[in-house]
Design goal:
The protein is of the alpha+beta class. It has five helices and 18 strands. The longest helix is centred in the middle third of the chain and has 20 residues. It binds pyrrole-2-carboxylate.
């Protein structure tokens, strides 16, 4: 590996989940669209993803965002996961907005709110930032449309029924108590074990073409529990991505998929603002309404709006050298 030029980042956390926004030091990326630039990065510079996200500079749950120019929106960005590339990431969109403010790339100029568009590989996202006394108090974004592809699926060797839904990434949604998952920090080890084995089993069925309407593997298993408190719907959830990886935040794309599921099941109404709460008791607010034109799809699509907050944790200037045996990074399961 060549010596890595100094790469700079601004790090933040959204309800506990980290976002590392790369601000400088990357090679020029080729391509018209943000999706093309992500492909160029994946083909030619993937070692920089593992350099930036894996240990000892990151960890399995670290998420990166590469800020790019966009011909279609105010900003462009694609998201890096420790194992893959994400076409959309909700918590990282919130982290990115707070980072743009930190860098002075968006400025309230005395206003109480501002809005910008973000091109991501999954589509164009509209982001709204609210300020009080010059400080951000919330970041909301209208996600790409969410929809349920199948409900109440049961397969041999999968211990519970599940729904399949899209919210910018693909999810299997499982009622937490049906597999003994406790939605607290102490329940995470068990949730990662059960979630990752359910994910592998479902993806084997998808590969075999046994799951109707699905051509793509699921990214994650979303464990949920819903109830009403004083009339307000509280959705507590935990998203498991891999045996060593869960989303600390309430998960923007997962919450989007869950909103579509809840509306279709008649548990919440269209447009109802619900709380989506993580295992650390930090909330996103969320709602969704049906999309008037879902193209050729036979499934009802919903426009999710997700609102949360991120906090800057620091800045980095990474230094990588050829003689570092772990320059490419490493992860343990
Ligand atoms: O917030 O959408 C999200 C997300 C996906 C993976 C990690 N966070």
């Amino acid at each position: 590996m060549p010596d890595i030029p100094n790469i700079t980042s601004v790090d933040s956390h959204t309800a506990g989940h980290p976002t590392r926004v790369v601000t400088g030091g990357l090679p020029q990326l080729r391509g018209e669209t943000v999706a093309d630039k992500m492909d160029d990065f994946a083909q030619h510079h993937d070692h920089l993803r593992t350099f930036l996200l894996h240990e000892p500079r990151g960890h399995a749950a670290m998420v990166g965002a590469v800020l790019t120019e966009s011909a279609k929106a105010d900003f462009g960005a694609f998201f890096l996961g420790s194992y893959n590339y994400l076409p959309m990431c909700g918590h990282a969109t919130i982290g990115l907005a707070v980072t743009l403010d930190h860098l002075g790339l968006i400025q309230p100029k005395g206003r109480e709110s501002l809005q910008f568009n973000l091109e991501v590989p999954a589509g164009i996202i509209s982001v709204g930032v609210r300020y009080q006394n010059g400080r951000i108090i919330s970041v909301g974004f209208k996600n790409v449309p969410a929809f349920v592809v199948a409900a109440d699926l049961m397969f041999p060797d999968i211990p519970a029924s599940f729904d399949l839904a899209y919210g910018g990434n693909w999810y299997a949604l499982v009622e937490a108590s049906s597999v003994g998952v406790d939605l607290t920090p102490n329940g995470v080890r068990h949730a990662m074990d059960v979630g990752s084995s359910i994910k592998s089993a479902i993806n084997a069925y998808i590969d075999a073409g046994d799951v109707p309407h699905m051509a793509e593997a699921i990214h994650s298993v979303l464990f949920h529990r819903g109830n009403r408190e004083a009339g307000q719907f509280i959705n507590r959830q935990l998203v498991v991505l891999a045996p060593n990886k869960f989303d600390r935040s309430p998960c923007g794309t997962g919450t989007s998929a869950r909103l579509a599921q809840l509306i279709e099941a008649g548990e919440i109404s269209s447009g109802e603002r619900i709380v989506s709460r993580n295992i650390l008791d930090v909330d996103f607010m969320a709602s969704a309404t049906p999309v008037s034109d879902a193209g050729n799809s036979s499934k009802t699509h919903y426009d999710p709006v997700i609102e949360g907050l991120a906090h800057i944790t620091g800045t980095h200037c990474f230094i990588g050298s050829q003689d570092d045996p772990l320059a490419d990074g490493f992860l343990c399961n």
